[in-house]
Design goal:
Strand order of the largest sheet: 2-1-5-4-3
Number of domains: 1
Oligomer: single chain
Helix content: 10-25%
C-alpha cells in the first residue's frame, strides 16, 4: 500500500483506483516532477526532484533513502513510499 511521508505529521496511506497509482497522482502528492530512489527491499521512494529550494528536509524519507543517496544529501518535501509494481 502506498504511503505519503509528509515533512511534518504522521505517515498516511494513499488510496487510489485500480492496482497502480498514476504518475500524475504522484506528481500531485510530491508537488512536482518526480525522482525515484529504489530501496533494497523492493520498495520505491518517490520525491520531488526540485524540492530542495522550496521545501524543508524530510527526516523520515531521508533516513529511508540514506544508503542510496550521496553522503550529506537529503530528501526535501513530501515523499511517497511504494511497493514494487504500484506505479503505472
Amino acid at each position: 500500500m502506498a504511503q505519503l511521508i509528509p515533512v511534518y505529521g504522521d505517515i498516511e496511506k494513499i488510496h487510489y483506483e485500480g492496482n497502480e497509482i498514476a504518475l500524475e497522482r504522484l506528481q500531485e502528492l510530491v508537488g512536482g516532477y518526480i525522482q525515484i530512489v529504489y530501496l533494497d527491499n523492493g520498495q520505491m521512494l518517490v520525491m520531488n526532484e526540485d524540492a530542495k529550494p522550496i521545501n524543508p528536509k524530510n527526516e523520515w524519507a531521508t533516513r529511508l533513502a540514506s544508503k542510496f543517496i550521496f553522503a550529506g544529501d537529503y530528501v526535501a518535501g513530501p515523499a511517497v513510499l511504494l511497493e514494487q509494481g504500484e506505479i503505472s
